[in-house]
């Protein structure tokens, strides 16, 4: 710890400034990581319900949902892709600043696309999709914010 004088003659304790700066950086890093973990949680949930159609029906407000074989196969492909995206986010959260583009492409087109699908379902009468609209809106905003924070931290 040492003191230095500023141009206007004030004395500043340098270690406190550094500590304050690091606390601000740590808070930003924490906020950045929250978006990744929200995505990981959402993707895990969707991977499970796509792989188990009965759970999909419950989650989307169609408890008697009984898809045919072709739909179950399509859902299986979707569930497998969601599992892969979950692992991609797990990889990216380890270095969220350097791998920030992952959170950006998760926001758009992935989360934005899910919002559009849920909106179509809602407009077609599935009012149970309202929670999906809220969830994807929160995810989208947190992910774009996370990307911008990470980009700004990388520039400093």
Main beta sheet:
2 strands, antiparallel
What general form does the structure show? elongated
Alpha-carbon distance between the two ends: 23 Å
Strand-residue fraction? under 5%
- Return the domain count: 1
- Average the pLDDT over all residues and give the rounded result: 90
The helix count comes to: 5
Can you give the helix content as a percent range?
A: over 70%
Number of strands: 2
What is the topology, as strand order, of the major beta sheet?
Answer: 1-2
Instruction: List low-pLDDT spans.
Output: none
> What order do the helices and strands follow?
EEHHHHH
> Over all CA atoms, what is the radius of gyration?
21 Å
Secondary-structure-based class equals mainly alpha
Oligomer: single chain
Set out the fold topology:
Elements: E1 3-5, E2 11-13, H1 14-51, H2 53-59, H3 69-93, H4 100-123, H5 130-155
Antiparallel strand pairs: 1-2
Helix pairs in contact: 1-2, 1-3, 1-5, 4-5
List keywords for this structure.
about 160 residues, mainly alpha, two-stranded antiparallel sheet, 5 helices, 2 strands, about 75% helix
Written account of the structure:
By secondary structure, the chain is mainly α. It has one domain. It has helices at residues 14-51, 53-59, 69-93, 100-123, 130-155; strands spanning 3-5, 11-13. A two-stranded antiparallel sheet has the order 1-2. β1 (3-5) and β2 form a beta hairpin. α1 (14-51) packs across α2 (53-59). It is elongated.
